Amino acid sequence: MSRFLVALDFPDAETAVRTARRLADLVAGFKVGLELLSGPGPGVVGILAEMGLPVFCDAKLHDIPNTVEAAARQLGRYGARWVSVHALGGVRMLEAAREGLEEGAAGRPAGVLAVTVLTSIDPSDLAAVGLGTSVGKQVGRLARLADRAGCEGVVCPVSELATVSQAAPRLIKVTPGIRPSGGSADDQRLVATPSEAVERGADLLVVGRPVTRAPDPRRALEELVESLVASGGSADPGEGQP
To answer: Which of 97, 106, 226, 240 shows its CA 20 to 30 Å from the CA of 152?
Structure first.
């Protein structure tokens, strides 16, 4: 089983599904983000789930608990394996998301991934919004909160994987901002290669534009898998994952 979750950041379902089918044997699953959810809608989650691979619905829910619970329930009904929720919403909101998702999934495996700090954020951004702390302290605090709320895992920068392992070792760690060695960071500030992420403890690696915007997406993903194996890292997240 692969460690890679490919982010299908496309404006239309046709391109997303065609890309998913082309890459299906190389991935641990697919990530559906706000672009698809705001365009074709959550029905695309169901289409992808029918392929038999986990779908990470990266909705980044953040609202009052009742609203988040209802939204998570709907996504669970569509077939989401994971749904992301901003940990800054607090324990009650995270618990509501978990309960709603589990109800919607109706017995299928489903869990909440708590978003700690976005990979586009740096300490000056945290200070600007009134969170005058380091990225590491913020991630650790929110990881403990997510653990208490019964989340399955967290989404965090590679630089803070050790922080999560120490603060909440039970949680699976999903890492965005994955780039090939020497690749463009695009609008991400906290990026890493696959081998760097795995060495620091990542369970699942989210990769988007380096694959989906490549001239040959399948070859681009194969090269990322090969680079991980060549570095001595395991391409398999291990027993029980995802």
So the answer is: 226
Q: What is the pLDDT of residue 182?
A: 56
Residue owning tokens 């380091």: 134
Residue owning tokens 């120490």: 166
**Apex 68 CA angle, 12 and 13, nearest 5:** 10
CA of residue 233 relative to chain centroid, distance: 20
Contact (Cβ atoms closer than 8 angstroms) between residue 19 and residue 31? no
The SS3 call for residue 27 is: coil
pTM: 0.91
Q: Kindly report the CATH number assigned to the domain that includes residue 148.
A: 3.20.20.70
Residue 240 located in a structural domain: no
Counting the structural domains of the chain, the total is 1
Structure tokens at 236: 């398999």
DSSP strand E in 38-136: where?
55-61, 82-86, 111-115
pLDDT tens-digit readout, 122-158:
888 888 988 877 889 999 999 999 999 999 999 998 9
Active site residues: 60
- Provide the residue range defining the domain that includes 156: 4-230
